[in-house]
Design goal:
- The chain is α+β, with helices and mostly antiparallel strands.
- It is built from 3 helices and 4 strands.
- The protein has one domain: Glutaredoxin, CATH 3.40.30.10.
- Strands 2-1-3-4 form a 4-stranded mixed β-sheet, sandwiched between helices.
- A hairpin with a 2-residue loop joins strand 3 and strand 4.
- It binds glutathione.
- Glutathione binds next to helix 3.
Length: about 80
């Protein structure tokens, strides 16, 4: 699966991104990020920051829901 979404299930920004992924019928893997910031090693390694949502599409890594939605709108 190419698309991965690092997220919190209850984050409104993540919900917004999941909505767009759903509308577009895109398959993606959801990765629930630990609530403990010190445990977010994978997220930090990938994106260089601690916030969600983060979308990974192959080599492309995007943080921030608005940027992710712009990206999805342009690419898919
Ligand atoms: N401007 C960002 C805001 C994202 C945001 O505030 N995410 C929160 C969760 S809803 C977060 O990651 N907070 C860091 C934390 O809880 O440690 C976006 O639109 O994606």
């Amino acid at each position: 699966m190419a698309l991965k979404l690092y997220q919190f299930e209850n984050c409104p920004y993540c919900t917004k991104v999941r909505g767009v992924l759903g509308e577009k019928g895109l398959e993606y893997e959801k990765i629930e990020v630990p609530l403990d910031r010190e445990e977010r090693t994978e997220l930090i390694e990938i994106s260089g920051q601690i916030m969600v949502p983060v979308l990974v599409d192959g080599e492309t890594v995007i943080a921030d829901s608005a940027k992710i939605i712009d990206y999805l709108s342009e690419k898919y």
